[in-house]
Amino acid sequence: MKSYIGDGQIRIVGKAWEVKHQLHKMMRQAGEGATVAEYIGALHRGSSSGRSGSAGRTLPFPVR
After folding, report:
1. Which long-range contacts (CB under 8 A, 24 or more apart) does 25-30 make?
2. What is the pLDDT of residue 38?
């Protein structure tokens, strides 16, 4: 499974149960009442990479 996060968007590729599990995990990290848009915004603001362009970055599937 892979997750692609770009400017204001997220793309999660995998089986349905993997995507659902990943979304639940992301929302637990973001905190109660957070939206996916807020989570993506926080990731974008927290990014310290000096890359330019809109290619986004690939996040590996988290290991338990």
Report:
1. 25/62
2. 82
The string of pLDDT tens digits covering residues 10-61 is: 889 999 999 999 888 888 888 888 887 888 777 777 655 444 444 455 555 5
CB distance 4 to 56 below 8 Å: yes
Give Cα separations from 26 to 3, 33, 44, 51, 55 (angstroms): 11, 12, 14, 24, 21
Would you state the torsion angle of the CA atoms of residues 11, 16, 21, 23, taken in this order, to the nearest 10 degrees? 30
